[in-house]
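Let's do one together. I've listed all components of the complex below, 468 residues spread over two lines.
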Amino acid sequence: MEQLLDRPEFQSAIIPFFVALLVYGGLRKLVAPAWMIALFAAFLIASGLINGLNLIPLTGTRKIILLVLASLILASLAPYLIRRLKLQRVALPVLSILALLWVFGRVVMRMDITDIVLFLAAGVALIVWLLWSFARIADDDAKFHGAGLGLLLGVGLCASAAASALLGQLALSLAAATGGVLLAWVLTGNATGSGKTQTSFSILPYVLAASLIGLAGVIFARLPWYALIPLAAIPLATSLVPVKPATRFFRALLNSMPGLIIALTTTFWVWQAGSTNSSGY
Amino acid sequence: MKKLILTASLVLLPINTLLAASYTVDPSHTYVSFAINHLGFSTMRGKFDRQSGSLDYDPGSKKASVTIEIDAASIDTGHDKRDQHLSSPDFLNAVEHPTITFRSTKTGWSGGNLASVTGDLTILGVSKPVTLKVHSINCGQHPFNKKQVCGFDASGSIKRSDFGVNYGLPAIGEVLDLQIELEAVKN
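Okay, and this is what the predicted structure of the assembly comes out as:
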């Protein structure tokens, strides 16, 4: 059993997928943000298996783990804590940019001024773009989770194809958990905690996880920066899917396709571009 | 007999006094290397290509101190892709924590010889005490450039999880054997 838990495919695919599926399946009729609780449980277990529940030293990667978990809690509670919609909309980019500074502050302080400006401009642009493009699809369960699945899968595969299996596994575990939620939605109905019950804050976990892990891949692990451009287009591409099939299975499948195609194509591109992978092991 | 001791002391004293000095690490003759178990099959070896530091050595009063700063991104296992992975957040996180340091805090002596150096090793910003066994230390005049040089060979072991380098445990070994061969030139 212990040997199975040490294997990357169990840590970042099989376990988070089934944890999310079961938690969501059990809670979906009880609480509105069931998918966030499912993702929280799946990511907590997966990151514990991948990284160990060890926060010292508090590296950028561990800050990302904390922030993703915190964003899931915040997204669940925010509608009760911040009732004014306007305030929610302002809080989202502000919190995301503070998260960016916290994760990369140590590295940014060593950069020269040109690199600081370039990095912060690119980071803020990525976050604002993802917030905007996810907000457009937040009231459609299939599009919202389909785009989340594709984006996190792409970020995870690209980080792994660059030089960090750790960052890759973290993103892939979230993608697997999102896959579990999406499958549960297909099997059990539409009470996913998104749709009409979705709030402004519900988009925060996907945006924060994808942008921070993606940027960490670029800064810490030699992921080509231009790989983030097609990946960032996934929510927009998903929003452009015109047809709305009658069955949930085809809706989930159709709305996941743009993300999956872009994720796999970008990963192949990164791999072909001569970016390194961790095949030394 | 007293005369003999006095004469010997007078002869030896200047040698020890001569050795008591501050030295700067010569990066071209300093090797910081390591060995770690690879998936239970074999031992994988590597080294760091860039390091700097200083040595204070006074055998007369049995005092010594050493500081070594290692560029984490200069890790070299003879395989580029693996080196980039080892520099990534999975292991040394070289962008965020570019320097590995060793600063001695205590020395052990056997007779008149330096036998061990205990110090704080800092990896990923985490400092832990590590004791290096000194196998040999030799000081004298360099035969070609005539500068005063000291060199020592030392080794020790660390557990990488003590420093928060957890990725790949337990498949990739936890215990890292360190070896330092250092030469330093008198300032």
